[in-house]
Amino acid sequence: MKELIRTNDVVLLSFAESLMKDADIACMIADQSMSVLEGSLGLLPKRLLVAQEDADRARRILVDAGLEHELRDEKQ
Predict the structure, then answer these.
(1) pLDDT value for 28
(2) Residue 73 to residue 22: CA distance in whole angstroms
(3) What total number of domains does the chain contain?
């Protein structure tokens, strides 16, 4: 899996996840359960993950949607 976005912004994650679903790219939001450990304060970021083979296409979709500033470094 390749991490594309890491953020506390649930609206951003929801939008990015919707873009992936519309493009038939399977994705996963990791660390959603971490809020139990932190007391639901929203301090720990969640991650948008896609399969390695879908990463380039997913990045292009997110850039086209104006989210390039949210993308993680490609080397990570």
Answers:
(1) 96
(2) 24
(3) 1
